[in-house]
Amino acid sequence: MCVCVCVCVCEEEEEEEEEEEEEEEEEEEEGEEGEEEEEEEEEEEEEEEEEEEEEEEEEEEEEEEVEEEEEEEEEEEEEEEEEEEEEEEEEEEEEEEEEEEEEEEVEEVEEEEEEEEEEEEEEEEEEEEEEEEEEEEEEEEEEEEEEEEEEEEVK
């Protein structure tokens, strides 16, 4: 009887030890699985963070590109405006020069006309003077003739 009890007790102890070992192994496995899960979660978080960073970088790059494009457009618009202003100024200067030239031409024509008129007037005056002189001469001649006639009559 003693032998049986000892054997049974020993078997129970062995079974208990085996169960404890199995539980420990399960706990270890669970612990390892938990660690693996944590590692996987950490890796996922890191990947998400990396993705977020990449997205942020892409957004920043896009914003920079948009800003650069806007700046380029503004510069182009400013250059176009400056060119237009310069063209307008040149056109205005050309118009002013043309007007001045026209005015000078008109003045020259007017001066020429005035000179012609003066010359004509002078010519007319000279003609009048000549006519007057001729008339005076004729009168003198007539007077002389009359005087001669009178003298002859008196004789």
Q: Which of globular, elongated, flat, extended, rod-shaped describes the shape? A: rod-shaped
Largest β sheet strand count, sense and barrel closure: none
Order of H and E elements? H
Count every helix, treating DSSP H or I runs of 4 or more residues as helices: 1
Provide the helix percentage: over 70%
What are the salient characteristics of this protein?
155 residues; mainly alpha
Written overview of the protein:
With 155 residues, this protein is mainly α. The protein is 99% helix and 0% strand. The protein has one helix at residues 2-154. The protein is rod-shaped. The protein starts with a helix and ends with a helix. The mean pLDDT is 89.
Write the layout of secondary structure elements.
Blueprint: H1 2-154
Gist of the model:
By secondary structure, the protein is an all-alpha fold. Helix content is 99%, strand content 0%.
